[in-house]
Amino acid sequence: MSSSAANQQAYGRRRKSPYMVAIVLAMVMFILVAPEVNDGDAMSPTINDGQILVVSKTSYSQNRGIPERDQLVILEKNATNAQKVSDDNIIARVAGLPGETVEIKDGKVYIDSKEYITENGIEGSDGEMSVTLTEDEVFLLCDNREEYIDSRNEKLGPVNMRDIKGNVLFCVWPFSRFGGID
Question: What's this model's pTM, rounded to 2 decimal places?
Fold first, then answer.
C-alpha cells in the first residue's frame, strides 16, 4: 500500500470519527434520558403547558434507592391507577417518602406532623386526608394544588416507586426557560 493511499484512509477515518462519536453518544443518551412534553398546568408555575423537558430514566424501589423529597418525577401513564387520572404521563413533586404519614387539614400539608412547604415556597392544599405510606410508596403533589392529578386523587393515591418512569433533569424548550427546574 502506498503512502498516499494510507494517508487517504487515515484521513477518511478521522473525517468519519466525529460522526461515529455523535452516533454512539446519541445511543447512550437515548438509553439514559428521554424527552417529555408537559401537557397541562398541573405543575404551574414551576413547569408550564408545552414545555419540553429532559427526563432521566431512573427507576426507584426500596432496594434501588428512593427519590428525594421535592424531586420532580414522571409517573408513566400506564402505571397502576395512573390511567384513571390522566391520559398522559403525570409530572409531580415527591412530597412524602416511604414510611411517612401525610396529612392534609386546615388548608395545609403535613409530613409526619411538620408543615410541608417546597423549597420554592409552594404550600397548602384544600381537602382533608391522612395516609401512612408503605416502604414502597411515595406521595406526589402537583405544584398547582387546584389540579388533582396527584396522590390526593383517590383514584391514584400513594404511588409505588416502581411506577415512576424517571425524574425531571432540565427544560430545553422554550429557550427562555432553558436550564434546571426546582
Answer: 0.78
